[in-house]
C-alpha cells in the first residue's frame, strides 16, 4: 500500500540545514540515515521520521509551489516563534503576496527555502 512519507528539502549545506531544522522543530538527526549529502531528522521522542534534508545544487524558488507550514495556536506564539526562528538563522522574506489580513509570516531557512509560520487563531487568511 502506498503511504505518504515525510517532506524533503533540498539544501546547499546539509550540516547547516540539519542544525537549523533540528533546533527549529526540536528534532534530532537519525545517525543511521546520515551522510554528507543526506540527513533524516526524527522526533526526539522516538515517534518517527519528520524531515529529510538532501544536498541540492538547484537554485531556491522565490515562489515555491510546495513549502512547509509551521503551525502555532495564537498570535503571541507566532510572534515568539518568528523571533526564535530569526535567532536561529532564518530570514524575513519580503513577500509581496500577503492577503489583506494574513494568518502567516513567510520566512526563509539559511539556504533561502521559504516556509510559513501560520497562526491558527486567524486561519484561514482572508483575501
TrEMBL record:
The keyword Oxidoreductase applies. Residues 3-120 form the VOC domain. Gene3D superfamilies: 2,3-Dihydroxybiphenyl 1,2-Dioxygenase, domain 1. PROSITE patterns: VOC (PS51819). It comes from the Bacteria. This is Glyoxalase/Bleomycin resistance protein/Dioxygenase superfamily protein. InterPro entries: Glyas_Bleomycin-R_OHBP_Dase (IPR029068), Glyoxalase_6 (IPR041581), VOC_core (IPR037523). It comes from Amycolatopsis pretoriensis. Coiled coil: none annotated. PANTHER family: CONSERVED PROTEIN, HYPOTHETICAL FUSION PROTEIN. GO terms for molecular function: dioxygenase activity. Keywords: Dioxygenase, Oxidoreductase.
Amino acid at each position: 500500500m502506498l503511504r505518504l512519507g515525510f517532506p524533503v528539502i533540498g539544501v546547499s549545506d546539509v550540516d547547516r540545514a540539519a542544525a537549523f531544522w533540528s533546533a527549529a522543530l526540536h528534532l534530532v538527526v537519525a545517525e543511521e540515515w546520515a551522510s554528507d549529502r543526506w540527513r533524516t531528522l526524527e522526533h526526539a521522542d522516538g515517534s518517527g521520521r519528520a524531515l529529510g534534508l538532501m544536498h541540492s545544487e538547484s537554485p531556491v524558488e522565490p515562489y515555491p509551489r510546495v513549502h512547509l507550514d509551521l503551525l502555532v495556536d495564537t498570535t503571541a506564539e507566532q510572534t515568539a516563534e518568528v523571533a526564535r526562528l530569526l535567532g536561529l538563522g532564518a530570514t524575513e522574506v519580503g513577500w509581496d503576496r500577503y492577503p489583506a489580513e494574513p494568518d502567516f509570516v513567510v520566512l526563509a531557512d539559511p539556504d533561502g527555502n521559504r516556509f510559513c509560520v501560520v497562526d491558527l487563531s486567524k486561519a484561514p487568511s482572508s483575501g
